[in-house]
Fold this protein.
Amino acid sequence: MVSDNTVDTAKSEYDVELTVTLTEAPGAEERTFHLRSAGGVLSSDPTSMDSNLPDAPAALAAVEQFGEEIFFPEPRPDRICTQQYGGPQVAVVKGWFRGRKVHSHFSRTDGCEIARWKAVAALLGNTGGSSGAV
């Protein structure tokens, strides 16, 4: 899990402006999704590049609910994660969330990472390991 919340002078015109790069398996073709909203409102055109996720309203709801915790987690030395493997899926989320720069890595390598993935599955495209659907 990598999170980079360094200060950047560039600003976004959106409250949420995220680009998700999803790889379902090693060597698989990457898929790219975008989520953008201003004032909690998504683009009215579902085919626009502003928000091209399969369920953009659910993705925005998940990001609004879990964003701070998911994108900028506080280190917790008492955190215990089950040693289980949830699949080869990897997602990298970059962009802006409420004025903070986001660069976050999602995988399914243990119980804690699987929980993070499930919390924002709609943002990660609801594909493959994110929802159980293929």
The beta strands are 16-23, 31-38, 41-42, 90-97, 100-107. Helices lie at 56-71, 111-119. Confidence is low (pLDDT under 50) at residues 1-9, 128-134.
